[in-house]
UniProtKB/TrEMBL annotation:
Keyword annotations from UniProtKB, A to Z: Membrane, Transmembrane, Transmembrane helix
Family annotation (Pfam families): YhhN
Transmembrane domains' residue ranges: 12-30, 36-55, 67-85, 91-111, 118-135, 141-161, 173-198, 204-224
Catalyses which reaction(s): a 1-O-(1Z-alkenyl)-sn-glycero-3-phosphoethanolamine + H2O = a 2,3-saturated aldehyde + sn-glycero-3-phosphoethanolamine; a 1-O-(1Z-alkenyl)-sn-glycero-3-phosphocholine + H2O = a 2,3-saturated aldehyde + sn-glycerol 3-phosphocholine
PANTHER family: GH04784P
Enzyme class: hydrolase
Topological type in the membrane: Multi-pass membrane protein
EC number(s) reported in the record: 3.3.2.2
Keyword Repeat applies: no
Listed GO MF terms: alkenylglycerophosphocholine hydrolase activity
Predominant location category: membrane
Originating organism: Macrostomum lignano
Protein's recorded name: lysoplasmalogenase
Domain of life of the organism encoding this protein: Eukaryota
Length: 262
């Protein structure tokens, strides 16, 4: 519990810019403003803050920081997707950018433990979600892209849930945060699809953006103990020395006290 408290105390101040910028966004733009440059700016600032949050917890080319790099890639492509979705006519392109983000997040979460029952449950929900929305899309291309995107986001969700550890430790806390973030991402994107292809939702911008920011926050928060998890994983594969060297090169391995290596 001490490690959890120390990590939260360290992470808290670094999340203040995200929380403040998200609050300002909702105050200034309760409704979506397509093509509005100020809307674009204030929409992107919270994600930029999360990018800074991930970088502040360490970043290098060593294996110990592989998780951070993949989450960072996901955030960067999400930022590009945010920019695309502000402008009319770029919805499909935005979906493709977010599809890359989902691949990066799933890659970060990894394939161990597999937990096929969770995967099967996610697959059934994915099929139901797709059939309830995308058959109403006005183009065949959108339906196919929607099919691929639905598959990718639910794979990401499956992998996030599969790695949850229900234990009183920092790893249990951050893995749960990642899973909650993945679930909120599914909710946010489902609301976008329903609002676009089925029926307009009341307060759509507030619902979509609040769940979206919550999703990215949960996923970004999961980097807190990622280096330590990676060291354990590599140790099991006989790469303990290399992992420890990578971790020592970038900090002392304790959450909140890592530095970025250049």
């Amino acid at each position: 519990m001490t490690h959890i408290c120390n990590a939260l105390k360290s992470a808290g101040p670094r999340l203040v810019p995200f929380l403040k910028s998200a609050a300002i966004f909702f105050i200034l733009f309760p409704e979506k403003s397509p093509g509005h440059l100020l809307y674009l700016l204030f929409k992107c600032i919270p994600i930029c803050c999360l990018i800074g949050f991930v970088i502040s917890h360490g970043l290098s080319l060593s294996d110990a920081y592989a998780y951070n790099r993949r989450i960072l890639i996901g955030l960067c492509f999400s930022l590009l997707g945010d920019i695309a979705l502000v402008f009319d006519g770029f919805f499909l392109f935005g979906m493709c950018l977010f599809a890359v983000a989902q691949v990066a997040y799933a890659w970060a979460f990894g394939m161990s433990p597999l937990r096929p029952r969770v995967g099967l449950s996610a697959s059934l929900v994915a099929v139901a979600a797709y059939l309830s929305v995308f058959p109403r899309a006005n183009s065949v291309l959108m339906r196919y892209v929607g099919l691929v995107y639905t598959a990718l986001i639910f794979v990401m969700f499956w992998r996030a849930v599969a790695r949850v550890r229900f234990e009183k430790s920092l790893g249990g806390c951050t893995s749960l945060a990642g899973a909650v973030g993945a679930a909120l991402f599914v909710v946010s994107d489902f609301c976008i699809a329903v609002n676009k292809f089925v029926t307009p939702l009341p307060h759509a911008n507030a619902v979509i953006m609040s769940t979206y920011y919550g999703a990215q926050l949960g996923i970004a928060f999961s980097v807190l103990d990622s280096q330590l998890d990676r060291v354990v994983s590599l140790s099991a594969k006989g790469s303990d020395n290399d992992a420890k060297k990578g971790l020592l090169k970038n900090g002392n391995g304790f959450p909140g006290k890592r530095v970025c290596a250049h």
